[in-house]
Design brief:
- The protein folds into two domains: 3-316, Alpha/alpha barrel (Glycosyltransferase); 353-414 and 455-536, no CATH class.
- The protein has 17 helices and 14 strands.
- It has helices at residues 3-15, 18-24, 39-42, 58-66, 78-93, 111-128, 136-148, 158-175, 178-192, 209-226, 232-242, 267-272, 278-292, 304-316, 420-432, 439-452, 522-528; strands at residues 333-337, 342-346, 350-355, 361-366, 369-374, 377-381, 386-388, 396-400, 403-412, 457-467, 473-480, 487-492, 516-517, 530-536.
- It is globular, with a radius of gyration of 24 Å.
């Protein structure tokens, strides 16, 4: 494929979503919600507050306005520019007095939505070449909020911290207020202190490859703007770590990560390609996934915006090379990242990533085709309890003579859903109590309930054996340690997740792999209390 066409893959992938962005926007100047991109709020009226995250839409539209390309009908279209500025103004009108905005519920003052929209608004103004002085006080207010409350956000989300650094630096570039450059540097130091010696930055309870690419992206953007040398080596280490987790089909991440995400945002890697050759191999693999349609797809209104502007930025800052440049030949290795809990195995024909800290969740590829995806044992007891082995825990494991053995107990799974009464109680609590406290008050409660809470262990013990030389089978031993326990349903899932993460559960090839139904062996399991099962990987 010609070099220009390789670059064009990014542009064509991003520009196709512009009609959807325009559909989300309230384009009626007479409406008080003119410039709002939360269609559920201004059009469907199914929600009673606007999510500030949607205002991120201004950035991909600004890029569409400024990027000249034969396939870009939006180039220099003044209506696009008007909608971008209207979107920034609506972000200001809908903000709280401290500059923050909501995301999932009223009075949330969400650091994530505040940071994403700050970056998008400041970057859109920079892209358009707009001084936007009448908007500076609002943007500085939002940046100051993130400096204080955003960096204290409960839960460790490195990608948010990296985005705050970028947003603060953008605020400096736009307003020329040097205090924001200094604040960005102070926040950056706190973030870099979180990086592990394996190269990754933490996301809640461990390493999430997908969100790591966001952290890399934001730090690379910051480097591109600031030339700050302090981020170069951390970025090289992070890219080196990420290079082991790019799958042969160009997909990335999965259920073995701490947040179950499949993200790969390429712009930061394109920026760093001149300094770190492994970034070229990663982006070339991802470009093949664009061509072959093997990337993950997360197209809902809230999330696709991140990808859209990232693809357009990748086109804009494409690092010129031949498609074959820096491609690694198939190699044989085993690489164990003990702190992340990832075992990566490569043979001339096969590739596998195994999440040891999550009970042996695994992706196994034969040549370039995903043949096996194990996202955990799950089932129900005759008493109606649901359980899963896909939980971050201290699993026992050994790696000896090319055999991986993982063993541990399943945990009870209690999905969290609202019902009319529980939703009413939650909304009343937010309106009359939580709104008067720090944003972390309610956020920490929800994180504990939906993300980091560990349900009690269930006496369903799981042992997995994986031969690492051949990667051709997985042996399971399932034992019931309570004599009164009986199982009603049992599966090995290919794509299930069990904590709430907004950006998990995309569509990707693993979704079409069948779940392995173990119900046929349940009579033996309930009678003998232990069974062995072997799955052959063709």
């Amino acid at each position: 494929m010609a070099e220009q066409n390789l670059k064009d893959l990014y542009f064509l992938e991003g520009i196709q979503y512009v009609p959807k962005l325009l559909e989300l926007a309230d384009r009626n100047r007479l409406n008080s919600t003119y410039g709002c991109f939360d269609r559920g709020f201004w059009h469907y009226r199914t929600i009673d507050f606007p999510s500030g995250m949607y205002q991120e839409s201004v950035l991909p539209l600004a890029l569409a306005f400024t990027l000249k390309h034969p396939s870009n009908p939006y180039y220099q279209n003044q209506r696009i520019r008007e909608i971008v500025l209207a979107g920034i103004d609506y972000a200001q009108r809908s903000a709280y007095s401290d500059g923050s905005c909501d995301d999932y519920f009223p009075f949330e003052r969400a650091a994530g939505a505040t940071a994403f929209s700050l970056y998008a608004c400041t970057e859109a103004l920079l892209v358009l070449g707009e001084k936007g002085t009448e908007r500076h006080e609002f943007l500085k207010l939002r940046a100051n909020y993130l400096t204080e409350e955003g960096m204290r956000e409960s839960g460790v989300l490195s990608n948010h911290k990296a985005l705050i650094v970028l947003g603060l630096y953008n605020t400096f570039l736009l307003t020329q207020d040097a205090s924001f450059r200094d604040k960005a540097a102070a926040c950056l130091k706190k973030l870099l202190d979180l990086q592990t010696d394996e190269g990754w930055f933490p996301e809640y309870e461990g390493c999430d490859p997908g969100y790591l690419t966001f952290t890399i992206d934001f730090l690379a953007k910051y480097y591109q703007k600031s030339s700050d040398p302090s981020v170069v080596e951390p970025l090289r280490k992070a890219i080196g770590f990420a290079s082991y987790l790019m799958h042969p089909d160009g997909s990335f991440g999965g259920e073995y990560g701490s947040r179950n995400t499949f993200h790969f945002v390429p712009h930061g890697f394109e920026i760093m390609a001149a300094l770190e050759p492994r970034a070229i191999s990663l982006t070339n693999a991802f470009l093949r996934s664009l061509r072959q349609k093997t990337r993950s797809y997360l197209e809902d209104d809230r999330i696709f915006i991140h990808y859209t502007y990232n693809y357009l930025q990748s086109y804009k800052d494409f690092f010129e090379r031949k498609e074959s440049q820096n491609e690694n030949t198939p190699s044989v290795f085993q690489k164990f990242f003990e702190k992340a809990g990832f075992l990566v195995v490569s043979t001339p024909q096969d590739y596998a990533v195994i999440g040891i800290r999550k009970g042996g969740t695994a992706k196994i590829f034969k040549k370039t085709v995903l043949k096996y995806s194990d996202s955990g044992l799950l089932g129900t007891t005759v008493c109606g309890k649901r359980f899963t082995s896909q939980v971050i825990s201290n699993w026992n494991y050994t790696i000896e003579k090319d055999l991986l053995v993982i063993e541990g107990n399943s945990c009870v799974y209690k999905p969290l859903l609202f019902h009319p009464l529980s939703f009413l109680c939650f909304r009343a609590f937010v309106l009359f109590v939580a709104r008067f406290f720090s944003p972390n008050f309610i956020r920490k409660f929800l994180q504990t309930k939906a993300i980091t809470k560990k349900e009690r262990k269930l006496p369903v013990r799981v042992r997995k054996e994986i031969p690492l030389k051949t990667l051709d089978r997985i042996r399971y031993q399932i034992s019931l340690e309570d004599p009164a326990l009986k199982i009603k349903d049992l599966w090995i899932s290919s794509d299930a997740t069990f904590i709430y993460v907004a950006t998990s559960q995309p569509f990707q090839g693993a979704n079409l792999l069948p779940w392995i139904d173990l119900n046929a062996v349940l009579p033996e399991l309930n009678a003998k209390r232990s069974i062995s099962y072997e799955y052959r990987i063709a």
